[in-house]
Amino acid sequence: MAFTIDGIVSGFDTSTIIESLLGFQQTQLDTFNARKAEITTQQSAFKGIEAQLLTMQNTLGRLNRSASSVFDVQQAVSSDEDILTAAASSSAANGTYRLTVDQLATAHQIGSQGFDSSSAEIATGEISFKVGDRVEQTITIDENNNTLAGLATTINEELDDVTASVIYDQGADSYRLLLTSKHTGTANEVNVSSNFDVGSGTEPDFSGEPIQAATDALITLGSGAGAITASYSTNQVEGLIENVTLDLTSADPDKPVTIQVSSDSTSAKEAIGDFVNEFNAIMEFIDNQTQYLPDTDQASPLLGNRSVNEIRDELRQVAIDTVPGLEGGANRLAAIGIEINTQGRLQIDSAQLDKAFSGEIEGIEPNEIRNLFGLNGTSNNAGIEFVAGSSRTVAPDSSIEVNITQAAEQASITGEGTLASSVVIDSDNNEFQITLDGVVSETLTLEEGTYTQEELASHLQSTIKNSSELGTRGVQVSVTEGGDLQIVSDKYGNSSKLSSISGPAASALGFTGAESDVGQNVAGEFIIDGVVEAATGNGRVLVGDSDNEYSADLQVSVSLAADQINAGSEGELTVTRGVSGQLDQLVSKFLDTDNGTLKGIDDAFELRLLDIDESIANVEEITESKRAYLVAEFTALESIINELRTTGDFLTQQLSTISSSSDD
User: Fold this and answer.
1) Whole-number Å distance between alpha carbons of 312 and 278
2) How many angstroms separate the CA atoms of 85 and 75, rounded?
3) Cα 499 to the center of its chain, rounded Å
4) Nearest CA to 399 among 426, 372, 380, 420?
5) Largest Cα–Cα distance of the chain, in whole Å?
6) Which domain of life is it from (predicted)?
7) How far apart are CA 43 and CA 603, in angstroms?
8) Closest residue by Cα to residue 425 from 487, 486, 510
9) Are 369 and 71 in contact (CB under 8 A)?
10) C-alpha distances in angstroms, 67 versus 73, 130, 172, 366, 375?
11) 71-101 pLDDT, tens digit each
12) Other beta carbons less than 10 A from residue 292's beta carbon
């Protein structure tokens, strides 16, 4: 709290005099605070640039993504969606296909005999339902559900593969229980067996003619003498046209439908447009922070700042330069209609971009456009495929050699007992369990019957595939030349695991129960200009170590088999980094939290602010010391003046007394 004396004795305005004497220090403080405010404003402006760069980096991710890339989108268009619709994955090949849907797949429906009402009582006991080769399920009928409607409710609550409903048969004036398979196709018929309590009531009987026969979908591809007719158990068809899914909605053998599969550039154009908008937003923000307005004689906070000018220039240079390593016409943005205008902004010539994607520009193939943007790689070996990289992956001037020392392998087990030409499966040997990729299946049941070796292999594979515990994990089952069953996991690498089959079915299938195997990861290394860089395998994917100079985070998929591995390199990979890939790398350099450009700029600002705060603290300390000194001096002066005034008053009084005495 400031102490004031305000010339109580002298009448001087001591506070004003002291503040005037301290004016130099206050001028210093004002200068420091103004400089601090200026630096803080500049620091905030760079924070704004950082935010803009982060936003653009997120946008660049769409263009740089290797998996599910916007440049890989395919479309499948049906000429008659009332009959079928189509969807294409990114791997679908362009083409035109003529199809006819001859028949839809239908679900098997069977009905019971008639009852007087839905509440009619039925026999108690057990009733079992089996759909195709799926697991049989059994329900119990007791006094709580021994009506037609009660049985329908129990079926719907407890069964996985069948639905039930009570229907009224008008012709017979009776109520019947309708069972419908949840799965279409002839292989998914509903079979019912029962074990009712004798004399407990009317037993539901489903042995009559089906209400709806199970049918497979039938499709004909082509119309000539060599037309292909195929059948499918569902109305969602996969595999007829590779990487194209067909959804069948109606059948009309006399009405052909044309499916056109082609590239869909919509997503790519949207991603390019978003990138251009974000790039221009950064340029505009930087321009606003570095401009001078002569009309108002106002300068923006970063006018003349060398660091911000370097950031802007580096970003703009990447956008206008030719992409290193790219051959052909599509090696710079301007080639596809994206150019820098006089204001330093990117602008898109939509007509030129459309032509580029449709292959109408000489020297530019549509599939080359992706290379103009993200990180991409091409291999001279079909068994080695570029997958992805990161901002740390460097595109070298020379190609990257890929040296594979170990091919990825799947877990595989082979039975030790040769199968007979026909194998009988019955209730004594139809149950088993299998451990796949570390997950133990529930007890699985083979359908009773007599099988050839190939039929048994197919049925075993299907049964394992339908396991609820194993989920999406799958196997391939085949018969070796020696007549043994061989089970191979669909998965590659050391997470691919198969343990022996256990249970009564094991011996019938030729297994002892001791068989087990673990797959192997791919192994290898990358070589750049003779320098070996380490890599780690994960399944079929080989990944460069994160501290590699060039191949950091580089991922390649290796589908080579063991007999394709030779001494030396198996292939060469040419890696290029397009415009958005280079920008992503540049932005990462700017934003790096340890050694990034913006981190260095912010640290410099913090040091300058710290120096100013220290200077302010020093000046304030000096100011307070001088103020205390001046207050003390003026206090002493007031005291002296007060003493002189007291003495003067005393002398005046004495003189007045002497004068009065003389007059007397």
Assistant:
1) 13
2) 11
3) 33
4) 380
5) 165
6) Bacteria
7) 10
8) 510
9) yes
10) 11, 41, 60, 18, 11
11) 989 999 999 999 999 999 988 999 999 999 9
12) 11
Task: From 31, 1, 211, 11, select the one nearest 106 (Cα to Cα).
Answer: 211
State the Cα–Cα distance between residues 570 and 380, nearest whole angstrom. 9
Q: Say yes or no to pLDDT of 316 above 80.
A: yes
Amino acid making up residue 595: N
**579-591 helix and 306-320 helix, angle to the nearest 10 degrees:** 160
Nearest Cα residue to 188 out of 102, 128, 109: 109
| Distance separating alpha carbons of residues 537 and 520, to the nearest angstrom | 9
Query: Hey, CA dihedral for 496, 499, 505, 509, is it positive or negative?
Result: positive
Q: What is the pLDDT of residues 571-611, one digit of tens each?
A: 999 999 999 999 999 999 999 999 999 999 999 999 999 99
**In angstroms, rounded to a whole number, what is the distance separating the alpha carbons of residues 519 and 495?**
7
Nearest to 149 by CA among 182, 116, 173, 126: 116
The answer to whether the beta carbons of residues 179 and 110 sit under 8 Å apart is: yes
Question: Residue 54 has which token pair?
Answer: 């982060």
Contact (CB, 8 A) for 410 and 489: yes
Helices assigned H by DSSP within 363-483 = 453-465
Q: How far apart are CA 404 and CA 558, in angstroms?
A: 8
Tell me how far CA of residue 324 lies from CA of 213, 317, 328, 549, in angstroms: 64, 13, 12, 18
Distance of CA 492 to the CA centre of its chain: 22
Length, in residues, of the chain: 664
User: What's CA 13's distance to the chain center, in Å?
Assistant: 74
Q: SS in 3 state form for 583-644? A: HHHHHHHHHCCCCCHHHHHHHHHHHHHHHHHHHHHHHHHHHHHHHHHHHHHHHHHHHHHHHH
Burial bucket for residue 608 (CB in 10 Å: 0-12, 13-18, 19+): middle
Please count the CA atoms within 13 angstroms of the CA of 402 that sit on its side-chain side. Answer: 35
Nearest residue to 382 (alpha-carbon basis) of 578, 564, 566 = 564
Distance CA 521, CA 541 (A): 8
Cβ neighbours of residue 610 under 8 Å, at least 6 residues apart? none
User: What's the start-to-end Cα distance of the chain, in Å?
Assistant: 58
Structure tokens at 213: 């026969």
